[in-house]
Amino acid sequence: RNIILNNPKKRNALSLSMLQSLQEDLLHDVQSKDLRAIVISAEGPIFCSGHDLKELSSEEDVKHHSKVFELCTEVMTLIQKLPVPVIAKVNGLATAAGCQLVASCDIAVASEKSQFATPGVNIGLFCSTPAVALGRSLPRKVALEMLFTGEPLTAQEALMHGLVSKVVSEDKLEEETMKITHKICKSSKSVLALGKATFYRQMTQDLDTAYRMTAQVMVDNLTLRDGQEGIEAFIQKRKPVWSH
Predict the structure, then answer these.
(1) SS3 of 103, please?
(2) Rounded to whole angstroms, how far apart are CA atoms 222 and 228?
(3) Interatomic CA distance for residues 30 and 17, integer angstroms
(4) Is the Cβ–Cβ distance between 80 and 45 less than 8 Å?
(5) 115: closest CA among 147, 138, 92?
(6) 8, 91 in Cβ contact below 8 A?
(7) Structural domains in the chain?
(8) Are strands 115-117 and 153-154 parallel, antiparallel or unpaired?
(9) Which residue ranges traverse the bilayer (predicted)?
(10) Which pLDDT tens digit goes with each residue over 208-233?
């Protein structure tokens, strides 16, 4: 599924309506056997500028402000709860909650011209919610430098520090993203769903607990039809036929 942020005149800001649409698109028929991966991209030179600041002004009340951040949190955490991999295809600037969106995705492929920043500190609104995703994707000191200064990372710096998975030239962005997506689509959906859920679960656990939990998951994985099919196919040197 391709989800395209398509409000370039407003720098693809994550307004309340944009967040609602994104949530709906992510959840739509998510259990379908045909849905194997989701790619999030954007129209225009800016991937996403973060929240719509007009919605965070004094013209709106505290209740509205809370609603914006609550929905944004729901969307960001939803991405990691979905049973399929979510890939950010970034071609341009991703700032504040836009940078949070990239950090929240499972995989991120960026063009060389892309940049990533959390500049809220420069307008008196520290990027505290983006910092949650950023602090879990980047080394602490790199994340804090971004948060304290608002200075952007280049695509290559983002790659070096782990915010994105790959950096390619702009003309290769679509090709590289599709290459990853097609590779994912060749695997069993049930196995990927189990693996993704387990990965994020073990990341919050201590080492011993994580190994105990993942060892049991691997035993459970062997009981899945696709797990047995894959092993038998490997032993017999043939391609597996996934039940999905």
Answers:
(1) helix
(2) 6
(3) 20
(4) no
(5) 92
(6) no
(7) 2-185 (3.90.226.10), 187-236 (1.10.12.10)
(8) antiparallel
(9) none
(10) 999 999 999 999 999 988 888 888 88
